[in-house]
């Protein structure tokens, strides 16, 4: 590609033809993050009909508008869109149909311009094999969300006694946004805040049933304020925490 961009006259028609017909998916991103050129190999890789003109579209959304588990992938977190020097990494792209395809990509700034050349290829075999495996990938995304939910539930059970533990902490630890974490829990009919509260209150009830004081159960369950603890306990169980201590 250096020979095309640096070592020969920049005949726009010739360059456009070479890029269009190259077997390797090639993608040019302008300084605003829009697609400046996408060759047919790239268009087909992403599940569009050959000849589809993607110029002017948002590169990030066309390549990977969400993560493999279906949660949003913010544009500002994308290394490709902000590439100012040669980069290479393994990641995933999302086809027009929403199938996740693992890829190996590399970027190279185009000399004399503010544009970036992106090339990519499927990981683990040819693009055709990856395309045929797409239906299984859909199920994998569901399994991934179920796994994340299970892992976060385990984290809640392990860390509920920490008064600083919160849905934001849970999101940060799992490299997700709070909204993404809330969406995963919502699919199970709950929320991260509700699960943290439930675990804390059930732990407090066990302590109270053992004869521990209300004050001790409050602080040992991650609550810092006795009044807040008492209100939450009453709302959850229907009676005051002191009643649990009664024989």
TrEMBL record:
Signal peptide: none annotated. It comes from the Bacteria. Keywords: DNA-binding, Transcription, Transcription regulation. InterPro entries: Homeodomain-like_sf (IPR009057), HTH_AraC (IPR018060), HTH_AraC-typ_CS (IPR018062), PAS (IPR000014), PAS-like_dom_sf (IPR035965), PchR_regulatory_protein (IPR053142). Residues 11-50 form the PAS domain. The keyword DNA-binding applies. The keyword tRNA-binding does not apply. Residues 150-247 form the HTH araC/xylS-type domain. SUPFAM superfamilies: Homeodomain-like (SSF46689), PYP-like sensor domain (PAS domain) (SSF55785). This is PAS domain S-box-containing protein. It comes from Microbacterium trichothecenolyticum.
């Amino acid at each position: 590609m250096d020979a095309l961009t640096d070592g020969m006259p920049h005949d726009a028609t010739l360059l456009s033809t070479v890029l269009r017909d190259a077997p390797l998916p090639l993608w040019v991103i302008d300084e605003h993050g829009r697609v400046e050129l996408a060759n047919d190999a790239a268009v087909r890789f992403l599940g569009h009909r050959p000849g589809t003109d993607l110029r002017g579209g948002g590169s990030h959304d066309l390549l990977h508008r969400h993560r493999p588990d279906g949660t949003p992938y913010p544009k500002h977190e994308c290394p490709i869109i902000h590439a100012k020097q040669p980069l290479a990494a393994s990641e995933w792209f999302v086809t027009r149909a929403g199938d996740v395809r693992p890829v190996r990509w590399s970027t190279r700034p185009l000399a004399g311009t503010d544009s970036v050349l992106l090339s990519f290829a499927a990981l683990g075999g040819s693009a055709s094999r990856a395309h045929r495996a797409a239906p299984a990938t859909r199920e994998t995304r569901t399994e991934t969300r179920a796994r994340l939910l299970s892992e976060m539930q385990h984290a809640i059970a392990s860390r509920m006694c920490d008064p600083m533990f919160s849905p934001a902490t849970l999101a940060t630890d799992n490299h997700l946004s709070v909204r993404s974490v809330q969406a995963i829990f919502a699919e199970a009919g709950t929320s991260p805040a509700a699960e943290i509260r439930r675990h804390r209150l059930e732990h407090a009830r066990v302590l109270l049933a053992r004869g521990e004081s209300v004050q001790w159960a409050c602080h040992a369950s991650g609550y810092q304020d006795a009044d807040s603890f008492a209100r939450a306990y009453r709302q959850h169980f229907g009676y005051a925490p002191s009643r649990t201590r009664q024989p």
